[in-house]
């Protein structure tokens, strides 16, 4: 649904996005992660035909960016990083304006549908200036959706929201994928990305990782097993010496071992530990979070950011 | 075309909610029209030379109006968009670059001309009532050309100047003050007339019209470049 090839954008001497090759499939939520200044917003702006790429190409729903911009604008919805509204106009009037600009048939009906869906119908006649940040963010989502776009770009949709509002927005985004919409989601919230996204792209001017969250975790860390010992001995970690063990370390009574495939390797590991005279109390899996992956990636990559 | 209408309608609804704008576009025209009427009233019974000078001053009010009204409207229409952070969502819609520019210009030019001409009509009616007839000097060809040809050129000039200035600052007051300088070309006739005490004539109207056309073409060229999506998003402050 979205494809980029060597997509690059420079601002003067500064490169914001370099040589980005990415593909987002139809009905997928792809998370775009990266530190401040990584080029997430710039990427979204290029794909939404707001900024021209310096070089490289991109396609959205078969239309090429830079050649067919009007067609792209009609079928994408954008939630910008800081979504503003005409604060003197009412909630409904704001949404109606955008619906009409997109040429939505039955604009009024569609506006009502989305205001109801996002729980704003009761406040339809209030001016936007009176809305809280959370409600404004919901209105921004309604605006991004009011013309039923096939492709959505959501730039940090939950930033600055309280946990409850953030949850409401997150649940709503979850529904979008089930409507077969394709979503590119920029976020700094890693649990959120892990919960919502089928795949994650980590960007730091260049693309530094791409994959399903569990894939990324496995690639980065293998799988960790934690063994709690009754008689920890300092030299135990080095003594294991099995081919599939990538790393092992002892910290107090906890031995942490990285293996390739726990189903296959753990029984062998346990047998070996017993042979070495270890007294085993518990064996458990160490869950890595996407945050661990992310932080590890950031340490390993040096980019301008 | 449909999108243009949608944009213009939204702008007017929004502008209508700003007190400054309402004062600027209702109070000021009435005030200027009142001044013009006063000049004509003062001129009654005077020798024709002195009367002509007063009429010229009256005409000048009708040349200031079409500049000042669009300045207020255009400044708020552009700065308001920046201030509220609505530019990016607006640029994400299928609105074409030229539609944004033309829409914002129309928002200001149309009411400016409607108000100028409306006040001019009121002025003629008032003159008729006051003097029992309209002095021929007020509906001479140079006068009518000034009102119906110079005014639109001046309105466009006012709009272009204020749109350019507004794209460079997010402070409506500063933009408003700088854009006020756009009124200078309207004063040209006054300066010429008051130095020479000659009645408004075709040559002066043609000269000022020519100057305005050139200025407008130059400004239009700059404005069209400034109103490109990328420019708006990355360079506007
Ligand atoms: N209009 C611009 N002019 C000059 N430089 C820009 C412009 N827009 C972005 N940049 C630069 O491009 C780089 C990428 O910025 P971008 O906003 O895309 O990052 P981001 O990943 O969205 O960051 P954040 O997480 O803070 O939102 C930054 O170094 C930024 O300073
Ligand atoms: Mg950003």
What distinguishing features does this structure have?
heterodimer; A: 305 residues; alpha/beta; Rossmann fold; Alpha-Beta Plaits; 14 strands; B: 237 residues; mainly alpha; 82% helix; elongated; binds adenosine-5'-triphosphate; binds magnesium ion
Explained architecture:
The complex is a heterodimer of chains A (305) and B (237). With 305 residues, chain A is α/β, with parallel strands linked by helices. Chain A has eleven helices and 14 strands. Chain A has helices at residues 40-47, 69-75, 91-101, 107-117, 133-145, 163-178, 190-196, 213-221, 236-239, 262-275, 290-300; strands at 2-11, 14-24, 29-33, 55-60, 63-64, 76-79, 151-155, 182-186, 199-204, 206-211, 223-229, 247-251, 254-259, 280-286. In chain A, the strands form three sheets. In chain A, strands 6-7-8-3-9-10 form a six-stranded mixed β-sheet, with helices on both faces. In chain A, strand 12 and strand 13 form a beta hairpin. The longest helix of chain A is centred in the middle third of the chain and has 16 residues, at 163-178. Chain A is elongated. The relative contact order of chain A is 0.13. Chain B is an all-alpha fold and 237 residues long. In chain B, helix 1 (2-15) crosses helix 5 (97-131) and helix 2 (19-42) packs antiparallel against helix 3. The radius of gyration of chain B is 19 Å and the shape is elongated. Chains A and B meet through helix 2 and helix 3 of A and helix 1, helix 4 and helix 10 of B. The complex binds adenosine-5'-triphosphate (ATP) and magnesium ion.
Q: Which two chains share the most extensive interface?
A: A-B, 30 and 27 residues
Write the element-wise H/E pattern of chain B from the N-terminal end onward.
Answer: HHHHHHHHHH
Q: How many domain modules of chain A?
A: 2
Number of domains of chain B: 1
Q: Any idea what the radius of gyration of chain B is?
A: 19 Å
The helix/strand series of chain A, from N terminus to C terminus, equals EEEHEEHEHHHEHEHEEHEHEEHEH
Biggest β-sheet: strands ordered side by side in the sheet of chain A? 6-7-8-3-9-10
Helix content of chain A: 25-40%
Q: Give the helix/strand class of chain B.
A: mainly alpha
- Share in helix of chain B: over 70%
Low-confidence stretches of chain A: none
| Major sheet details of chain B | none
């Amino acid at each position: 649904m979205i494809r980029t090839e060597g997509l690059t954008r420079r601002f003067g001497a500064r490169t914001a996005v370099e040589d980005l090759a990415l593909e987002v499939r139809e009905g997928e939520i792809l998370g775009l992660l990266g530190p401040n200044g990584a080029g997430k917003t710039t990427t979204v702006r290029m794909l939404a035909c707001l900024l021209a790429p310096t070089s490289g190409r991109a396609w959205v729903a078969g239309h090429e960016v830079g050649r067919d911009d009007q067609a792209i604008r009609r079928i994408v919805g954008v939630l910008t990083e800081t979504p503003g509204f005409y604060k003197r106009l009412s909630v409904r009037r704001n949404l109606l304006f955008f619906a009409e600009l997109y040429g939505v048939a039955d604009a009024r009906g569609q506006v009502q549908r989305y205001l109801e869906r996002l729980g704003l119908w009761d406040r339809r006649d209030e001016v936007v200036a009176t809305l809280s940040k959370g409600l404004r963010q919901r209105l921004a989502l309604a605006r991004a959706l009011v013309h039923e776009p096939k492709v959505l770009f959501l730039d940090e949709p939950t930033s600055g929201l309280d946990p409850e509002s953030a949850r409401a927005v997150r649940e709503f985004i979850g529904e979008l994928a089930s409507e077969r919409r394709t979503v590119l989601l920029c976020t700094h919230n890693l649990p959120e990305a892990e919960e919502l996204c089928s795949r994650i792209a980590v960007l730091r001017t260049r693309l530094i990782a791409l994959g399903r969250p569990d894939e990324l975790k496995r690639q980065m860390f293998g799988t960790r097993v934690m063994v709690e010992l009754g008689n920890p001995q300092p030299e135990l970690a080095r003594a294991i010496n099995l081919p599939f063990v990538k790393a092992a370390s002892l910290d107090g009574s906890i031995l942490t071992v990285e293996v390739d495939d726990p189903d296959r390797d753990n029984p062998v590991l346990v047998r070996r530990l017993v042979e070495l005279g270890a007294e085993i109390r518990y064996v458990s899996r160490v869950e890595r979070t996407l945050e661990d992956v992310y932080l590890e990636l950031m340490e390993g990559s040096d980019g301008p950011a | 075309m449909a999108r243009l209408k949608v944009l213009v309608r939204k702008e007017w609804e929004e502008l209508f909610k700003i007190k400054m704008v309402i004062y600027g576009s209702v109070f000021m025209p009435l005030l200027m029209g009142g001044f013009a009427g006063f000049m004509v009233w003062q001129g009654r019974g005077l020798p024709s030379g002195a009367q002509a000078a007063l009429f010229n001053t009256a005409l000048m009010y009708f040349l200031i109006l079409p500049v000042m009204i669009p300045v207020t409207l255009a400044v708020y229409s552009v700065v308001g968009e920046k201030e509220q952070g609505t530019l990016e969502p607006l640029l994400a819609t299928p609105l074409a670059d030229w539609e944004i520019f033309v829409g914002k210009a129309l928002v200001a030019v149309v009411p400016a001309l409607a108000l100028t001409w409306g006040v001019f009509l009121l002025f003629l009616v008032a003159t008729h009532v006051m003097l029992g007839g309209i002095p021929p000097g007020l509906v001479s060809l140079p006068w009518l050309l000034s009102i119906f040809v110079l005014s639109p050129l001046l309105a466009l000039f006012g709009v272009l100047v204020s749109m350019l200035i507004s794209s460079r600052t997010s402070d409506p007051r500063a933009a408003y003050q700088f854009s006020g300088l756009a009124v200078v070309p309207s004063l040209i006739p006054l300066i010429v007339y008051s130095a020479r005490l000659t009645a408004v004539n075709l040559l002066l109207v043609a000269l000022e019209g020519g100057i305005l056309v050139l200025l407008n073409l130059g400004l239009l060229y700059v404005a069209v470049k400034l109103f490109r999506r990328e420019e708006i998003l990355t360079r506007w402050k």
